[in-house]
């Protein structure tokens, strides 16, 4: 006879999650972030309390930012471990939808356990219930369907027997990895069921490493052997696969320069001789010149996003594309020759197939010129009384940190500037740029520090993103999670203002506070605000003070917020080519075809010429 144990459905879920293990002997789901409310407090809340000694619960300030912290943890762990988030019915659940989209776009694991309506429908419409007039099965949680890799509604306790393993199977699958959503009806959470004891036996989740198809491998190897000037575009899949060392060896052995995407940056340390820097819109002159002149472009673990490819204008007309990717959907983009497989295993097999093949010697001088340009952008300003540029801020932070530093960011000007100018050690870069979600930064820094406690986490955030979501500072203070926030204040959305005025030919409007419809220009005391949540907060008058404060922050066990005013000016990462030609590439942002202003009409004519060279293959 099958032995059973009588538990509520919520108790069974938490107990099961507590024994799902990694190959290294750690819990795969590290714990659950929770804000309790109507829809999860009675069932899931009680269950988390019952198992609090074996499965931790953490309280945050906002459901979206709790999920951001969980996503950053998973990214720091290279998808080997993840976290869960529970929310109440209604607004608590829909707060998480943005984070689910972020995890989906970035191919990162996240378990979302969202409170739902009553399965019995006895009290319908229950408080906060969203009703569809034509479909009685719909709830607010159906918003998760397009932004989840696995979705299930738990309307019976026994559904967990299949739903939970399916959810983790998706989360641990390197090809289909992404958020899993369990919409957990609130009455079912509290309902008892006789679960098989065997269901709660510890289980180890292992990482699959698919080898490439022999035919695909042979075709790609032949294409590379025939190429004289190949270039590699390395994406986040390189890092998630743990293929960093293999990529470095592959590039050196076959003499192929490497350009990096936002997700792939720091797969190779900046000092690696084959690292030619960032690719595309916010790319280096060395990397973009190599890509434009390449006869073969080899993508490794990249989706070939528009920033990476200069909106499909970066690669030369005659260049062939190869895409090494764990998922066939991504491997076939841009009409590339697909090579489907794990990045590490595939690069090893490909290198063996290439034998002693070596490409033409790449232009090392171009790489050195670019690095000198980086040093110039990041140099200490002579006039310490003037507001620094973002590049000068980056330089000050770089000088104040060591090899263990990780620069992280998500939105605004800083992602482009950091991609171009930050010079990391291997693993020293964490950027959420698949969704480029404002508000990820502070919560993401907390999750990153939890996932990589040995690293010195530096969070770059603009005043715009800080104002959008900053409350997890209080959580980090309460939990004594130290990281450094460098808050650059340029009085508005400087990045989008540049795109509006320089990139699209528009007039300054509604981005910088000075161009907004307000009665009084704001004077926000960010130091006082951060200090009110318990962080150590200070304002740096110049880059010298910034360096000193960044060094001092390393001795604290709470977050440090350093505010510095910066000048809002044209800079890398805006999608605008500079006259110096040192960086940047075209970014396709639609320009109005009809306008009363000559400046706008002139910009449209330029735009037509820029998009003419775009590759149209999917």
TrEMBL record:
Cellular component annotations (GO), alphabetically ordered? acetolactate synthase complex
Keyword Hydrolase tagged: yes
User: CDD domains from the entry?
Assistant: TPP_PYR_POX_like
Lineage: superkingdom:
Bacteria
Specify whether Transferase is a keyword of the entry. Answer: yes
**Where would I find the Thiamine pyrophosphate enzyme central domain in this sequence?**
217-350
Q: Where is the Thiamine pyrophosphate enzyme N-terminal TPP-binding domain?
A: 57-128
Residue limits of the Thiamine pyrophosphate enzyme TPP-binding domain? 412-564
Q: Which residues form a coiled coil?
A: none
Q: What is its EC number?
A: 3.7.1.22
A GO molecular-function annotation: flavin adenine dinucleotide binding
User: Example GO biological process term?
Assistant: isoleucine biosynthetic process
For this UniProt record, the keywords arranged alphabetically read as follows: Hydrolase, Thiamine pyrophosphate, Transferase
Q: Which family does it belong to?
A: Belongs to the TPP enzyme family.
Annotated protein name in UniProt: 3D-(3,5/4)-trihydroxycyclohexane-1,2-dione acylhydrolase (Decyclizing)
Task: Provide the species name.
Answer: Pseudooceanicola albus
Gene name tied to this protein: iolD
């Amino acid at each position: 006879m099958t032995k059973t144990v009588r538990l509520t459905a919520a108790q069974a879920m938490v107990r099961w999650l507590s024994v799902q293990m990694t190959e290294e002997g750690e819990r795969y789901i590290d714990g659950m972030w929770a804000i309790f409310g109507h829809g999860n407090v009675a069932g899931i809340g009680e269950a988390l309390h019952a198992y609090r000694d074996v499965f931790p619960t953490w309280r945050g300030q906002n459901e979206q930012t709790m999920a951001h912290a969980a996503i950053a943890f998973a990214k720091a762990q290279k998808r080997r471990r993840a976290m869960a988030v529970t929310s109440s019915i209604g607004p608590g659940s829909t707060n998480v939808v943005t984070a689910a989209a972020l995890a989906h776009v970035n191919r990162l694991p996240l378990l979302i356990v969202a409170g739902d309506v009553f399965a019995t429908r006895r009290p319908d419409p229950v408080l906060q219930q969203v009703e569809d007039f034509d479909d009685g099965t719909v709830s607010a949680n159906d918003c998760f369907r397009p932004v989840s890799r696995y979705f299930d509604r738990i309307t019976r306790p026994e559904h967990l027997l299949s739903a939970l393993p399916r959810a983790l199977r998706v989360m641990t699958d390197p090809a289909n990895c992404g958020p899993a959503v369990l919409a957990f009806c609130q009455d079912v959470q509290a309902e008892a069921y006789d679960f098989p004891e065997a269901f709660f036996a510890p289980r180890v989740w292992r990482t699959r490493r698919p080898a490439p198809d022999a035919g695909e491998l042979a075709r790609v190897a032949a294409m590379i052997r025939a190429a004289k000037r190949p270039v590699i575009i390395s994406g986040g899949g390189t890092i998630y696969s743990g293929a960093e060392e293999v990529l470095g060896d592959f590039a050196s052995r076959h003499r192929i320069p490497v350009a990096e995407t936002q997700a792939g940056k720091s797969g190779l340390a900046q000092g690696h001789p084959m690292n030619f820097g960032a690719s595309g819109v916010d790319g280096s002159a060395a990397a973009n010149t190599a890509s434009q002149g390449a006869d073969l472009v080899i993508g490794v673990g990249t989706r070939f996003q528009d920033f990476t490819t200069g909106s499909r204008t970066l690669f030369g007309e005659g260049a062939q594309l190869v895409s090494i990717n764990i998922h066939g959907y991504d491997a076939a983009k841009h009409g590339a020759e697909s090579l489907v497989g794990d990045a590490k295993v595939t690069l090893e097999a490909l290198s063996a197939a290439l034998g002693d093949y070596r490409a033409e010697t790449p232009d090392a001088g171009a790489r050195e010129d670019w690095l000198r340009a980086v040093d110039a952008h990041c140099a200490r300003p002579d006039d310490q009384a003037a507001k620094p540029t973002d590049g000068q801020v980056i330089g000050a932070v770089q000088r104040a940190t060591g090899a263990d530093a990780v620069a992280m960011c998500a939105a605004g000007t800083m992602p482009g500037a950091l991609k171009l100018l930050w010079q990391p050690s291997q693993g020293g870069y964490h950027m959420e740029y698949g969704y480029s979600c404002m508000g990820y930064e502070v919560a993401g820094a907390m999750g990153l520090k939890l996932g990589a406690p040995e690293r010195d986490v530096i969070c770059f955030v603009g005043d715009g993103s800080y104002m959008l979501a900053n409350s997890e500072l209080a959580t980090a203070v309460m939990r004594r999670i130290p990281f450094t926030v460098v808050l650059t204040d340029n009085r508005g959305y400087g990045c989008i203002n540049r795109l509006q005025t320089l990139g699209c030919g528009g007039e300054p409007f509604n981005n910088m506070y000075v161009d907004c419809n307000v009665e009084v220009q704001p004077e926000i005391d960010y130091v006082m605000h951060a200090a009110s949540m318990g962080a150590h907060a200070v304002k740096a008058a110049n880059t010298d003070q910034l360096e000193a404060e960044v060094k001092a922050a390393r001795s604290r066990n709470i977050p440090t917020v350093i505010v510095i005013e910066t000048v809002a000016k044209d800079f890398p990462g805006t999608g605008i080519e500079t006259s110096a030609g040192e960086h940047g590439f075209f970014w396709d942002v639609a320009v109005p075809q009809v306008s009363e202003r000559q400046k706008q009409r002139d910009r449209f004519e330029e735009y037509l010429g820029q998009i003419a060279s775009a590759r149209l293959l999917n």
